[in-house]
């Protein structure tokens, strides 16, 4: 059973992961004589007995969370006997027979895109793995990082009506109810000669010869047509505008059939029709006939179906590309098998066989310990270790494999010389040039809750590779892994993967012990949780060398993925404190009140988190007069999930203090009803330090602060700063 599933959740409407339109649940007569609307005809990518994955036949939604369909792919609800119809629980991975629903029309479009060359069982396996490792808020709609071509705004997870009355007709149009290709050819408008040719103008032979001295003008007709065959029609229109001579030479009706056929090939503007490119036909007429319907001012059922088909075709491409890659690659990640466990925050136990390895640090996008309706993208990964060189005297190349899942790009594998972890052979491959005499110092990473989004390497001499992957998406976090050095000039990269991408990455020393050793590595070499690089950060990482982090809830048992919010109100060495006038804490509900903080200065205001709440607590600080925050005490609520920050008390060097806690509306106290608060004190702080900020974590999908801590900066030249 998947961790984090909420069995008490009300059944939500289900949406097709290929097009984003509802899998409509409607009453079905006992003996249906006609087919249901296309958005009510549903297949399932099903898994039975926790092992067998297959594509069901065409069925219908007997309830919001249940697909009733024949298990034979060739049958449908009209032709199958009642005894041949079975229930498939959608988005309920704990069920013995469960899966993901998609429209039959969308399934046929996917097969058209794959040219019917891949066995349906292989397609089903790939789809199941893609869908299973994709977030699914409310067990309703898979979140691929896009808006489903506009369909997402019409998704109503918990509404009574699965199909909103005001949903655009385009989204309701059957993508398979399009005219036959022959009908499109017949209805093609005639070529308008006046539109084909520009107005006549007087030229001299000198003008013409000058125009034809350009590179295009010197080409023969055969070569010219070969060049323009790589252009789209809009690009060809732009080319015609570059000169009068080219506007005369580029005549659409004179272009060869090969040009117009290329407009229907994969990746071109008309590829959503999926015609047989080997079949002879008048491709120019087919293009004109299709375009005339698409551009008609008065919408028709044919136009809406074509437009919806075009929308779905664009959404299919990343999914289809992964299906193609899956059909020809190894499903086993590269590297040596390993096991991993985070015993306490920052205490990683990594083992391989009977040996344990010394971990430097590990970052992960793993969220399954949170109480989510479905695990948010990352599932129990497969762990691998690979050995990598610390330096490359002659330079070389590093290969980074990527995979596009929906609108997001993830890192799927890393390889250098003989070392490799993760997957290869997916949808992308990027080469990093390693300069001669390079020494690997750090690995900089960008994460989101579903896994590793981007990576780059830092070499000696302040040389850095380019980023590979996406770094600027929403819900991103950033961190740096130090590469440990050893006498044998090797270190290890540790990677956890799901079916397609890296979901955890760390660096491992070239140092091992027997697993039964009297003392594990994490006790001898605990991760210093005061160092900023021990954490992932929600925004740009702090760059102050003398910065240290102290948190109130160091023993909190939560998810490995909890990036810190950088609430920096002091600046480098506290240079902003001289102009600090006040701080505000924005609060909301009684049990999880802190939403954000704002700091007002003589010349600016800085805001962190959500600072739009009507409820806020303000504390004036005379920064210009020398007043500074010198102590912070936290208040937490203990519960079964983990302790949650409720409030905190700030004290200044002028012995002024304020409690940032909302008052109970019933008795005016600072304690939530029926719950006792625990005071948390920060211990072992360096004697000389300046409080210059806070850090906070947020529970995924929620606005409130879950954990809280402070940022301090050490004086330059202090023993603590030098030892770090």
UniProtKB/TrEMBL annotation:
Residue ranges annotated for the F-box domain, each copy included: 213-263
Domain of life, per lineage: Eukaryota
Annotated InterPro entries: DUF7600 (IPR056021), F-box_dom (IPR001810)
Descriptive protein name: F-box domain-containing protein
Lineage of the species this protein comes from: Eukaryota, Fungi, Dikarya, Ascomycota, Pezizomycotina
């Amino acid at each position: 059973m998947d961790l984090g599933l909420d069995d008490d959740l009300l059944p939500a409407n289900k949406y097709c992961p290929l097009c984003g339109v509802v899998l409509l649940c409607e009453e079905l007569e006992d003996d249906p004589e006609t087919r249901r609307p296309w958005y009510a005809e549903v297949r399932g990518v099903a898994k039975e007995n926790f092992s067998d994955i297959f594509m069901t036949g065409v069925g219908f939604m007997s309830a919001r969370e249940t697909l009733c369909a024949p298990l034979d792919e060739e049958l449908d609800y009209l032709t199958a006997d009642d005894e041949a119809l079975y229930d498939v629980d959608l988005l309920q991975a704990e069920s013995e027979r469960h899966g993901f629903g998609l429209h039959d029309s969308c399934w046929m479009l996917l097969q058209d895109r794959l040219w019917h060359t891949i066995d349906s069982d292989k397609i089903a396996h790939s789809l199941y793995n893609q869908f299973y490792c994709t977030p699914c808020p409310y067990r309703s709609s898979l979140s691929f990082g896009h808006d489903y071509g506009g369909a997402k705004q019409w998704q109503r997870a918990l509404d009574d009506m699965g199909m909103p009355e005001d949903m655009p007709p385009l989204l309701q149009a059957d993508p398979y109810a399009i005219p036959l290709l022959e009908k499109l050819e017949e209805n093609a408008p005639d070529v308008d000669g006046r539109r084909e040719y520009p107005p006549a103008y007087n030229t001299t032979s000198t003008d013409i010869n000058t125009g034809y001295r350009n590179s295009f003008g010197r080409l023969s007709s055969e070569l010219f047509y070969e060049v323009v065959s790589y252009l789209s029609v809009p690009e060809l229109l732009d080319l015609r505008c570059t000169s009068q001579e080219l506007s005369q030479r580029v005549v659409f009706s004179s272009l060869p059939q090969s040009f117009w056929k290329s407009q229907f090939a994969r990746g071109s503007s008309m590829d959503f029709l999926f015609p047989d490119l080997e079949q002879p036909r008048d491709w120019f007429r087919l293009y004109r006939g299709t375009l005339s319907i698409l551009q008609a001012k008065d919408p028709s059922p044919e136009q809406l179906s074509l437009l919806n088909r075009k929308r779905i075709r664009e959404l299919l491409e990343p999914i289809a590309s992964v299906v193609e890659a899956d059909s020809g690659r190894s499903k086993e990640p590269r590297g040596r098998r390993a096991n991993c466990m985070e015993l306490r925050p920052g205490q990683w136990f990594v083992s391989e066989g009977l040996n344990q390895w010394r971990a430097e640090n590990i970052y992960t996008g793993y969220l399954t310990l949170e109480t989510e309706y479905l695990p948010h993208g990352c599932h129990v990964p497969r762990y691998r270790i690979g050995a990598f060189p610390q330096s490359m005297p002659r330079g070389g190349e590093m290969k980074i494999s990527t995979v596009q899942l929906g609108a997001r790009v993830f890192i799927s594998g890393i390889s250098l010389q003989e070392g490799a972890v993760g997957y290869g052979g997916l949808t992308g491959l990027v080469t990093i040039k390693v300069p001669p005499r390079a020494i690997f110092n750090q690995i900089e990473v960008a994460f989101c809750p579903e896994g590793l989004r981007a990576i780059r390497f830092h070499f000696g001499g302040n040389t850095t590779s380019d980023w590979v992957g996406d770094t600027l998406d929403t819900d991103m976090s950033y961190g740096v892994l130090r590469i440990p050095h050893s006498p044998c000039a090797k270190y290890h990269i540790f990677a956890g993967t799901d079916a397609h991408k890296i979901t955890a990455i760390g660096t491992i020393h070239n140092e091992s012990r027997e697993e039964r050793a009297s003392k594990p590595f994490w006790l001898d070499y605990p991760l210093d949780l005061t160092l900023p690089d021990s954490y992932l950060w929600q925004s740009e990482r702090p760059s102050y060398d003398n910065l240290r982090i102290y948190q109130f809830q160091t023993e909190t048992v939560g998810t490995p993925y909890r990036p810190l919010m950088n609430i920096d109100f002091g600046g480098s060495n506290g240079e902003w404190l001289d102009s600090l006038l006040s701080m505000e804490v924005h609060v909301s509900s009684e049990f999880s009140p802190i939403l954000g903080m704002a700091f007002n200065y003589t010349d600016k205001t800085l805001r962190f988190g959500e600072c739009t709440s009507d409820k806020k607590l303000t504390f004036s600080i005379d920064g210009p007069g020398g007043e500074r925050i010198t102590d912070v005490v936290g208040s937490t609520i203990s519960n079964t999930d983990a302790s949650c920050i409720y409030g905190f008390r700030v004290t200044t060097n002028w012995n002024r203090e304020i409690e940032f806690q909302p008052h109970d509306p019933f008795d005016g106290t600072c304690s939530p009803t029926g719950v006792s608060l625990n005071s948390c004190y920060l211990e072992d702080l360096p004697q000389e330090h300046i409080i210059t900020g806070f850090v906070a974590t947020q529970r995924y999908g929620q606005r409130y602060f879950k954990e809280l801590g402070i940022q301090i900066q050490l004086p330059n030249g202090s023993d603590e700063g030098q030892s770090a």
